[in-house]
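Q: How would the structure tokens look for this protein?
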Amino acid sequence: MDLNQLRYVVIEGAIGSGKTSLARLLANRFRAETILEAPNDNPFIERFYADRPRYALATQINFLFQRADQLRPIAQAGLFSQRVISDFLLDKDALFARLNLSDDELSLYEKIYAFLKPQAPAPDLVIVLSASIDKLLTRVQQRGISYEQGIDETYLARLSDAYVRYFHDYDGAPVLFVNTDGINFVNDPAHLDLLIDRINRMRGRRESFSMTTA
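A: Here is the predicted structure in token form.
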């Protein structure tokens, strides 16, 4: 695999995994366009973290509309004259829905999802970031976003487990699983170089990377 030749790369992972930072770094390195989540544009996000059961459905549907709108242009093949790096995979949107919605709400969400989902091409590569729950929690606290400070260890553990289970079965694109416990892409450019080298050495559709295996 040659990262220079990939047209559509997705970075995924639970909150605090560093997916947006890595997406920006790779986009800067390879002069790519970015499609990034915009949680601050969701008017329900603060209320969701304060009262998840009450505001989960409104938050989820707002994100679904937002993400579908962001991805709709790349359903047109012409956009891929430019490389694209994104920090979300629409296919996994239901992961949050199943985690936070009641059965009736989930049924409604699934109907809306089926109607909205754009026929965007599959990514050339999905990079799935993970970290220990303690590390995720520390990163969330350090970045200091006020509405995230109420996220607790139990919710992060459930979310992290949901990501593991989802991508364990995902076969829509090649996947590189990256354990970021010992990695700092933002402050250590050498770590980014090691990741790029690992991507370029991929031969299978499901491989892994950490600092102990680099």
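The mean pLDDT is 89.

The chain has one domain: 3-209.

Upvote if useful.
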